[in-house]
């Protein structure tokens, strides 16, 4: 019986401990981030709509594949181009998109490999 009661108490404690985390997440006004997978030969997802100040993180796979990069082509006025390294694996690249508008990123090696991000006002 005692064992059962302890188990119940532990479950209750665990649930209580989880509540603040959930609340913090929901209430947080911290800028968001989105992960984009870099694969052969596509970005996933290849289309995103995000709020301003979202950090986009491109992640290459752990095991080596083809070489890819991320190069910003279309962008709102006044936004600087960015260009990642060329990488085959174990690499990531991130940029925070601060200005609303349409962004297009491509891989300079593979013409078919492109993606769009719409940053909301
Ligand atoms: Cu590529």
Description:
The protein has 121 residues and is of the alpha/beta class. It has one domain (30-119): Sandwich (Immunoglobulin-like), CATH 2.60.40.420. Helix content is 21%, strand content 33%. The chain has one helix at residues 2-27, and strands at 33-39, 42-44, 47-50, 54-59, 71-72, 92-97, 101-106, 114-119. Strands 2-1-4-6 form a 4-stranded mixed β-sheet, with no helix packed on it. A 4-stranded mixed β-sheet has the order 3-8-7-5, with no helix packed on it. A hairpin with a 2-residue loop joins strand 1 (33-39) and strand 2. The longest helix is centred in the first third of the chain and has 26 residues, at 2-27. The protein is globular, with a radius of gyration of 20 Å. 16% of the residues are buried. Residues 41, 66, 68, 107, 109-110, 113 line the site of copper (II) ion (CU).
Gyration radius, to the nearest Å? 20 Å
Q: Please indicate the percent range of residues in DSSP E strands (runs of 2 or more).
A: 25-35%
Number of domains: 1
CATH fold node name: Immunoglobulin-like
CATH superfamily: Cupredoxins -  blue copper proteins
Would you report the number of β strands?
8
CATH architecture: Sandwich
């Amino acid at each position: 019986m005692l064992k059962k009661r302890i188990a119940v108490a532990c479950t209750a404690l665990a649930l209580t401990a989880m509540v603040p985390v959930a609340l913090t997440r929901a209430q947080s006004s911290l800028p968001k981030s989105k992960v984009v997978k870099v694969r052969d030969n596509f970005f996933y997802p290849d289309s995103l709509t995000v709020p301003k100040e979202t950090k986009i993180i491109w992640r290459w796979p752990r095991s080596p594949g083809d070489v890819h990069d991320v190069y910003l082509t279309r962008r709102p006025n006044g936004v600087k181009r960015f260009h990642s390294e060329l990488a085959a694996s174990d690499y990531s690249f991130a940029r925070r998109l601060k200005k609303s508008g349409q962004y297009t990123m491509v891989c300079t090696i593979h013409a078919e490999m492109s993606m769009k991000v719409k940053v909301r006002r």
